[in-house]
């Protein structure tokens, strides 16, 4: 199991730099929109390892319910987003297919948290992804990628279907839209900061009741 770093351990820039770099995973099952998400929001030309799907890949990857999918990520996607003068996010998109699971441990090392993209029409495909993220000890938020033609889903039903904790953020986004993707990432970062503050400054325990003399 890979433990998540604390905020004090997350610097990925040289000593003395004014910015702190934060590694964030963008994860999800096959064809959920991870490459599109990073491409829509990265302030640099995103690194993408998309390759054209071959007939051999089609026999391995489940294309049921997926239309127009002609490429697939074979290593990772990478992008960068500066969210303030002090904080820059480095986004690592992981392949969603089961055969790439062995890459996840290396990808998860040093990550502060993860944004889990979910297709509301293929919720069952998200279970293995969430299990992996939890096994690495990473905090995460759920971003429901709203595909064209799909009806909106009730958040309570989504939470129940995905068996989420009450405080796990759930947002709806359009991975093609920069503002929508930024809002999803902002939700995740705020959640991670709140979690870090709770860990650093836990709520005080209630004091034991005072007993009167002779009680």
Automatic annotation (TrEMBL):
For the keyword Flavoprotein, the answer is: no
Q: Which SUPFAM superfamilies match?
A: P-loop containing nucleoside triphosphate hydrolases
User: CDD domains under this entry?
Assistant: Ras_like_GTPase
Q: Which InterPro entries match?
A: Gliding_Motility_GTPase (IPR052705), Gpn (IPR004130), P-loop_NTPase (IPR027417)
Give positions of region: Disordered: 196-215
UniProt keyword Membrane, yes or no: no
Q: Which Pfam families match?
A: ATP_bind_1 (PF03029)
Q: Which keywords, in A-to-Z order, does the entry hold?
A: GTP-binding, Hydrolase, Nucleotide-binding
Q: Which PANTHER family match?
A: ATP/GTP-BINDING PROTEIN-RELATED (PTHR42708), GLIDING MOTILITY PROTEIN MGLA (PTHR42708:SF1)
Q: Which family does it belong to?
A: Belongs to the GPN-loop GTPase family.
> What is the name of this protein?
ATP/GTP-binding protein
Q: Which organism is it from?
A: Streptomyces thermospinosisporus
């Amino acid at each position: 199991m890979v433990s998540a770093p604390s905020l004090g351990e997350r610097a990925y820039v040289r000593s003395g730099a004014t910015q702190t770099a934060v590694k964030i995973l963008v994860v999800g099952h096959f064809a959920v929109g991870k490459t599109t998400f990073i491409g829509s929001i990265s302030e640099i030309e995103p690194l993408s390892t998309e390759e054209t799907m071959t007939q051999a890949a089609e026999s391995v990857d489940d294309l049921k319910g997926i239309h127009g999918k002609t490429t697939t990520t074979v290593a990772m996607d990478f992008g960068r987003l500066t969210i303030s003068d002090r904080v820059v996010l480095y986004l690592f998109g992981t392949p969603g297919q089961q055969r790439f699971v062995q890459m996840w441990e290396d990808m998860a090392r040093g990550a502060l948290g993860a944004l889990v993209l979910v297709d509301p029409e293929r919720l069952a495909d998200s279970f293995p992804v969430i299990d992996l993220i939890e096994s690495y000890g990473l905090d995460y938020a759920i971003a429901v990628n709203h595909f064209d033609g799909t009806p909106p889903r009730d958040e309570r039903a989504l939470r129940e279907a995905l068996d989420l904790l009450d405080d796990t953020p759930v947002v709806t986004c359009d991975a093609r839209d920069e503002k929508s993707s930024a809002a999803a990432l902002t939700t995740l970062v705020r959640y991670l900061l709140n979690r870090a503050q709770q860990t650093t400054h836990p709520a005080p325990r209630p004091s034991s009741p005072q007993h009167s003399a002779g009680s």
